[in-house]
Amino acid sequence: MTARILITGAAGVVGTLMRPRLAAENRVLRLLDVAELPAARDGENVELLQASVTDMAAMESAMKDVDAVIHLGGHSLENTWENILRVNIDGTHTVLEAARRQGVRRVILASSNHAVGYVERASGEAGDYLFPRPDTYYGVSKVAVEALGSMYADRYGLDVITIRIGSCFERPKDVRMLSTWLSPDDGARLFEACLSVPAPGFRIVWGVSDNDRRWFSLDEAHALGYESKDNSEVYAAEVLAEHGELDPSSYAAKYVGGAWCGPEFDTAVKEAGR
Ligand SMILES: NC(=O)c1ccc[n+]([C@@H]2O[C@H](COP(=O)([O-])OP(=O)(O)OC[C@H]3O[C@@H](n4cnc5c(N)ncnc54)[C@H](O)[C@@H]3O)[C@@H](O)[C@H]2O)c1
Predict the structure, then answer these.
(1) How far is C-alpha 83 from the chain's CA centre?
(2) Is the dihedral of CA 75, 81, 86, 92 positive or negative?
(3) In whole angstroms, how large is the CA radius of gyration of the chain?
(4) Residue 60: helix, strand or coil by DSSP?
(5) Which residues form the domain of 30?
(6) Is 12 in the pocket of ligand 1 (CB under 6 A)?
(7) Which of 90, 137, 162, 260 is the most buried (most CB within 10 A)?
(8) Ligand 1 centroid to 271 CA: how many Å?
(9) From the CB of 13, is ligand 1 less than 6 Å away?
(10) Is the CB–ligand 1 distance for residue 6 below 6 Å?
């Protein structure tokens, strides 16, 4: 049987990194984004859809014959309350509701370290299922994403895994990312574990590589069958030479959410102009 996986936000950073890595025999990737997606390469088993995750009719149609959804689409940075509410919160409700209506049984949701951004680093390794302490409107939306996932799992029996992603990029870009980095290959390993683990129910797991400087627990990700094979330490000398060690009094050193906990990210004050 061919498995069809719908990936929303597939034109973005994570979607682009996962597109070749999640390709497999007997698997169709249905890639959806509001932005234009790069055309299929020769022999690539993909279906391309341009639509918004806020459009229920389009999402119901996108869910047809789908076995699992990886929901990445939305604002991945801080934004106005209106945009965050519409795209990240309402959009995730639309994705889950469309999945329920079309009988899709498994949904993997991209949450973020910013759902627990104000957790202090001094409290030690950040465990799985930490109580929310969002640092921004964006972080609040990820808490709502997790809550929606939990409700759809409990009420309708969907399997929903929410991943609190650290920093998923080709390579760590700064010193904080030496702790929070999820390598693209490890990202693919984690998504594969989420797709294949039997009957997970609702889970919250950290999305991080097994970095020497890791801040986040891997217990629950291991319970899904994920094994990290990468470690940001191979980039440490280069990153430290460029940026120097973290100032211990900086937001980046003090909080899980890093600089997002600081005044630059105070959207409420910015929106009010005072
Ligand atoms: N990359 C990371 O390190 C990281 C860390 C934490 C969480 N995340 C989360 O993972 C997901 C993917 O992150 P990313 O880095 O690829 O972000 P990105 O901004 O590169 O990609 C997001 C994609 O979503 C699309 N999108 C925006 N609004 C949409 C809509 N209404 N309908 C459909 N698509 C829409 C955008 O066009 C874009 O291609 C996001 O949910 C993000 O919040 C990423």
Answers:
(1) 18
(2) positive
(3) 18
(4) helix
(5) 3-272
(6) yes
(7) 162
(8) 23
(9) yes
(10) no
Backbone angles phi, psi at 136, to 5 degrees: -155, 175
Which residues, 6 or more positions from 128, have their beta carbon under 8 angstroms from its beta carbon?
204, 205, 206, 217, 219, 220
CA atoms within 13 A on the CB side of 69: 34
**Does pTM surpass 0.90?**
yes
How many A from CA of 14 to the centre of ligand 1?
7
Residue 52, classed as helix, strand or coil, is: coil
Sign of the C-alpha dihedral computed for residues 119, 120, 121 and 124 taken in this order: negative
How does pLDDT run across 187-221, given as a tens digit for each residue? 999 999 999 999 999 999 999 999 999 999 999 99
CATH code of the domain containing 59: 3.40.50.720
Could you identify the atom of ligand 1 that is nearest to the CA of residue 165? 6
Q: Which tokens sit at 61?
A: 């149609």
Ligand 1 pocket mutation pick from 6, 14, 177 by most atoms within 8 angstroms of CB: 14
Q: Measured in angstroms, how far is the CA atom of residue 75 from the centroid of ligand 1?
A: 6
Residue 111 clears pLDDT 90, i.e. is over it: yes
Active-site residue 138, yes or no?
Answer: yes
Assess whether the C-beta atom of 218 lies below 6 angstroms from ligand 1.
no
Tens digits of per-residue pLDDT, 220-258? 999 999 999 999 999 999 999 999 999 999 999 999 999
